[in-house]
Design brief:
By secondary structure, the protein is an alpha/beta fold. The protein has one domain: P-loop containing nucleotide triphosphate hydrolases (Rossmann fold), CATH 3.40.50. The chain is about 50% helix and about 15% strand. The chain is built from 8 helices and 7 strands, in the order βαβαββαβαβααβαα. The strands form 2 sheets. It has a 5-stranded parallel sheet, sandwiched between helices. Helix 1 runs parallel beside helix 7 and helix 5 crosses helix 6. It starts with a strand and ends in a 6-residue tail after the last helix.
């Protein structure tokens, strides 16, 4: 099984990926931990593309992280795509919450040397993500609906309900699931 989890910062992708990986016994790859080098240094574009191409060749995975420039690489290889399309009120709240929670520390889904930080351009990106990016993301995902199950999460309780069903059904949950697109 290959599961791709995308959405805005603060949508809960990494936490959900971790919980899903525990339930299904699948390896979890947090893209932020690979993209950001210590000191918040970005991975060069060609290296990033190559990394994504190699990562999706693995037999099983859960990959969390939006990274629109390489999203199609992961989407082509995924059996399931989970898109967290949450309200900006929720994502902004969560971004501030984790900033406080991890003050001066590195989150578990990031590289060491990347302490939690926040600035106005990032806040604006999170606040406008749904308005500015969601239609394009949904349009891109329609290309994969024939061969891939696409799940759109609009509320945190939907994610929780899905995780509870996966706890009882395991991978069978995805076999009977209808795509949201």
């Amino acid at each position: 099984m290959r599961i791709m989890i995308i959405g805005s910062s603060g949508s809960g992708k990494s936490t959900y990926a971790r919980k899903l990986g525990q339930e299904l016994g699948l390896p979890v790859y947090h893209l932020d931990a690979y993209y950001w080098k210590p000191g918040w240094v970005e991975t060069p574009k060609e290296e990033w593309i190559q990394f994504n191409e190699q990562l999706v060749m693995k037999e099983e995975w859960i990959i969390d992280g939006h990274y629109g420039s390489t999203m199609d690489i992961r989407a082509r290889a995924a059996n399931v795509i989970i898109y967290f399309d949450l309200s900006p009120w929720i994502t902004i709240y969560r971004v501030f919450k984790r900033r406080i929670q991890y003050h001066g520390k590195t989150r578990p889904d990031l590289n060491e040397g990347c302490p939690e930080s926040i600035d106005w351009p990032f806040i604006k990106y999170v606040w406008t993500f749904r308005r500015d990016k969601s239609a394009n993301v949904l349009n891109r995902l329609t290309k994969y609906r024939k061969d891939t199950k696409v799940i759109i999460i609009k509320r945190p309780k939907e994610a929780k309900r899905m995780l509870n069903e996966i706890k009882s059904q395991g991978l069978r949950y995805f076999e009977e699931l209808e795509s949201d697109l």
